[in-house]
Design a protein that fits this description.
The structure holds two protein chains of two kinds.
Chain A lengths: L2 H34 L7 H19 L2 H24 L5 H20 L13 E2 L7 H6 L1 E2 L1 H19 L1 H11 L1 H6 L4 H25 L13 H11 L4 H15 L1 H7 L6 H5 L1 H15 L1 H6 L9
Antiparallel strand pairs in A: 1-2
Helix pairs in contact in A: 1-6, 1-9, 1-10, 1-11, 1-12, 2-3, 2-4, 2-9, 2-10, 3-4, 3-9, 6-7, 6-11, 7-9, 10-11, 10-14
Chain B lengths: L16 E10 L2 E11 L4 E5 L6 H9 L6 E6 L2 E3 L4 H6 L2 E4 L11 H7 L10 H13 L16 H14 L4 E5 L7 H16 L4 E6 L2 H7 L2 E6 L2 E7 L5 H9 L18 E11 L5 E11 L2 E6 L6 H9 L6 E6 L2 E2 L4 H7 L1 E4 L3 H4 L7 H5 L10 E2 L3 E2 L1 H14 L16 H13 L5 E5 L7 H16 L3 E5 L3 H7 L2 E6 L2 E7 L5 H8 L3
Parallel strand pairs in B: 3-8, 3-9, 6-7, 7-8, 13-20, 13-21, 16-19, 19-20
Antiparallel strand pairs in B: 1-2, 1-4, 4-5, 9-10, 11-12, 11-14, 14-15, 17-18, 21-22
Helix pairs in contact in B: 14-15
Classes of the chains: A mainly alpha, B alpha/beta.
């Protein structure tokens, strides 16, 4: 590979990191909030797919893609609230409910989404941040969707809120020691219900990005498990919103390796490189499971740690 | 509620509390039967009773965790209605529980601020920290504000719990066995300071305890419960320990303690050489620990909880890997595996037996067979298990060790703590024992069970077993051990024959001096 090709690949990976990372970011932040409250919602893949379908449908019908984003968030909120409510019932396992919600979300998305596979809906605009460089590849890579910045702002806000607000402390308290929270008069179920709902809302917005910006259409293979990987990403990020952003960027860049290599003419191992994010997930899980620091940061009430 | 009101310099603010005719019924069980208790303003009142006597039920009814079926509560001689713990908090009644209610992932400062009913929505940490430091300056004991609670020692957590009550201006304090996690020195310091505050009428303290030494040293009045009934109260200084213990245990026959017999066996049986192990975070839990136990000897390992005692027992039981060092029995290397346990006749009674030595949902008879299910007569050919002989053997042992169970088929988790302990003892002591490893064997048991279990341990010693007794109860060690070893910071810091040492010396070594 010569130097020009390397630059092309790196620029493509940068663009990929920015473009592909956004849904990871939203799902991971949503999951981070839910897990901080002491519950795991594995169903966010369902929120993501349903959000993508709802966003596309609403954008197509109303002509306003931002209305689609809001609708996607609301659909995610409803799925999250269902998860939160069901888990509140006695002897219900949050992981099993999460898997059921995942199938439920993707199922209704496919059911109602059939009519929207063909038509073209208005898509979200991006902000061209790279035009000044005079390099067309770089300019294209730096076409940034506003949701990307919303995600980063959200991570900063969450990180601040966990340390500096009453609600942040209550969420952490509920996630780390339900008994203490109860002794302080906090309704553990209510906090978890709200955190799961809000997490579901964020995952829904992640879905809207998929169908309305990149790849930018609605079909049944749209998500290909990104929602599940985002859950793994939270573990990798050790339940820290800022680290979630970095992890999402890393995943985005890894996902761009395959197409980028193909664009410079390296076709051998194309499918292997396309699998990079999945392989990365595996290695990250293995590495983080061994990490002592992860064991310290994990919220004490999570059913996987108890 | 003003959490920042000055605490120290104010005049008489301690409330009095009286509970009259408290009755609480759980299904068929009368947990509290017409119990009354009166705690004067500024007193340091002890609530005594054995496990299951109703002490917890009484204070939880006062705290609003339970609704008493009958009875009323007077605070400063006015009737109050306490329906939830929040009502109790608003009335200035606070409690320190045996299990801590601090949130491990938050710092001390965060724990204090969030516990306030009027905690702000957004914290101005600089302002809060200044206020907390001012508050801390007025307190008799201090905790580092920026430390994460999970990194605090048990003693510091206990102090922080009490500071939290003072911070919340809760001047009627209920303490549930507050000194079980402290060194004797720490316990005396803390109780002394609370006693001084009570004497100045700044607080009123109701302390659940069963340590007569502490009650005699610090309390001014006491109330005793037995089986849910009031059995006496009085002046803690005037009453004798015999009177108080009579009120606690009634006419129950206490088994005679086994006598310590003299013998001259000197050979080392259990030899722990340079043991090292790490905790979940990779930090040393035990660090180059050396200890020898001879035949016919009880070596008592004293120490404040959390200094590696649990890790040591786990290592010997095969629950935690050793990172370095070697265990030898009769001069041969010992691996904590089933084959070696049988070969060297090593038996054990770990702490919290329901968690560490039984499968709670399996039956009593299955649990008793854990040592023998793969050997004749229960098993043939090494794999064919016959339930008949297993049940027969279990019945014999249940009778011999007086395990109270509805049937051998009942799940062992349905048994009371003392009976679980007896069932495990039956399993471990029924054979020929060369090495016995015991950890906190009497934690939370009533007097009769305590006497019986200590006798069993002493009998094994007299028969020539090498006994390693790890206990957080110094009195237990002083009673049973031939030699005492103090564990501090994951290693043995002091070893002495029991006749050459005393409580103070041991206490100083426990505190790390």
């Amino acid at each position: 590979m010569n130097e020009g090709a390397l630059v092309t690949v790196l620029i493509a990976m940068l663009g990929g990191a920015i473009r592909v990372s956004t849904p990871f970011m939203f799902v991971a932040l949503g999951e981070c909030l839910t897990e901080k409250s002491g519950r795991i919602n594995l169903g966010l893949e369902g929120n993501l797919v349903l959000g993508a379908m709802v966003a596309y449908g609403v954008s197509y019908l109303s002509g306003n893609p931002w209305l689609g984003v809001l609708a996607a968030g609301s659909s995610g909120l409803i799925l999250g609230a269902m998860h939160g409510y069901i888990c509140k019932l006695p002897k219900v396992n949050d992981i099993a409910v999460g898997i059921a919600m995942m199938s439920f979300g993707t199922g209704i998305a496919f059911f109602f989404g059939k009519p929207y596979i063909q038509p073209t809906a208005p898509r979200l605009d991006s902000i061209p941040l790279g035009d000044w460089t005079g390099n067309s590849a770089l300019a294209q890579a730096l076409q940034v969707n506003p949701l990307f910045f919303v995600g980063i702002a959200l991570a900063l806000a969450m990180s601040w809120a966990f340390a500096n607000t009453k609600w942040g402390l209550i969420v952490r308290m509920t996630g780390d020691s339900a008994a203490s929270a109860r002794a302080m008069g906090v309704s553990v179920d209510l906090v978890r219900f709200l955190a799961t709902s809000a997490g579901g809302f964020l995952a829904g917005i992640g879905g809207a990005f998929l169908s309305l910006y990149y790849p930018g259409s609605w079909n049944e293979g749209l998500s290909s498990g990104q929602g599940l990987m985002a859950v793994a990403l939270v573990i990798f990020a050790r339940w820290d919103p800022i680290r979630c952003i970095w992890a999402a960027l890393l995943f985005g860049a890894a996902g761009a390796i395959g197409p980028a290599l193909q664009s410079v003419g390296i076709t051998s191992g194309y499918y292997f490189f396309n699998a990079a994010p999945y392989i990365l997930t595996l290695f990250i899980m293995i590495a983080s499971a061994r990490s002592k620091a992860a064991a310290r940061d994990v919220p004490g009430e999570l059913s996987i740690t108890k | 509620m003003n959490a920042l009101s000055p605490i120290a310099e104010t005049s008489i603010r301690a409330p009095s509390l009286e509970a009259i005719g408290m009755t609480k019924i759980f299904g068929p069980l009368v947990a509290l039967d017409d119990v009354s208790i009166k705690v004067e303003a500024g007193s340091f009142h002890a609530l005594l009773g054995e496990n299951g006597a109703g002490k917890s039920t009484l204070v939880k009814s006062i705290m609003g965790f339970y609704r008493a079926d009958q009875g009323q509560i007077l605070l400063d001689e006015e009737e109050v209605s306490i329906r939830t713990p929040r009502d109790a908090r608003d009335l200035g009644i606070g409690m320190v529980y045996q299990h801590f209610t601090l949130v491990p992932c938050l710092t001390a400062a965060e724990n204090l601020v969030i516990s306030r009913a009027d905690a702000p929505t957004v914290f101005d940490w600089r302002k809060e920290k200044n206020r907390l430091e001012e508050f801390m300056d007025r307190m008799p004991f201090k905790v580092h504000l920026n430390a994460q609670v999970s990194s605090l020692s048990a003693g510091e957590k206990q102090k922080l719990e009490i500071l939290k009550l003072l911070y919340l201006d809760q001047r009627f304090m209920i303490l549930d066995e507050p000194t079980s996690v402290l060194t004797p020195g720490e316990a005396d310091e803390m109780l002394g300071l609370l006693g001084e505050m009570a004497a100045k009428k700044e607080i009123t303290v109701l302390m659940i305890s069963h340590k007569f030494r502490e009650v005699k040293a610090f309390c001014d009045s006491f109330t005793v419960l037995r089986r849910g009934k009031f059995t006496g109260s009085g002046d803690a200084q005037a009453a004798s320990v015999e009177e108080m213990s009579k009120m606690m245990i009634g006419d129950t026959q206490i088994r005679e303690r086994a006598e310590r017999t003299q013998h001259n066996r000197q050979e080392v049986v259990l030899d722990l050489a340079g043991l090292c192990a790490v905790d979940g975070e990779g930090l040393p839990a035990i660090d180059a620990l050396n200890l020898k136990v001879r035949a016919g000897e009880i070596v008592g390992v004293a120490g404040v909880s959390g200094n590696g005692q649990s890790a040591l027992v786990e290592c010997l039981a095969g629950q935690r890997p050793l990172s370095d060092g070697e265990v030898q029995i009769h001069g041969k290397p010992f691996e904590p595996k089933r084959a070696d346990f049988d070969k060297f006749k090593v038996f054990g009674l770990p702490e919290e037996p329901l968690k560490n030595a039984t499968v709670p949902r399996m039956s009593v008879s299955e649990n008793i067979a854990f040592r023998s299910f793969d050997k004749p007569p229960v098993a043939s050919l090494g794999w064919w298990m016959r339930p008949g002989p297993m049940r027969e053997r279990a019945k014999e042992l249940i009778a011999a060790y007086r395990v109270k169970t509805t049937s051998p088929e009942a799940p062992i988790e349905d048994l009371s703590g003392g009976n679980v302990q007896r069932a495990v003892l039956a399993r471990e002591l029924s054979g020929d024992v060369d090495v016995l490893i015991v950890a906190n064997p009497c934690f939370g048991l009533d007097f009769a069970s305590v006497a019986e279990i200590r006798s069993q341990i002493m009998e094994q010693r007299n028969r020539g077993a090498a006994v390693l007794l790890v206990s957080e109860d110094l009195d237990e060690i002083l009673e049973l051990a031939d030699r005492v070893a103090v564990m501090s910071g994951g290693t043995i810091t002091y070893v002495s024959p029991i006749e050459d040492t005393d409580r103070n010396t041991i206490g100083q070594h426990m505190a790390g001096h």
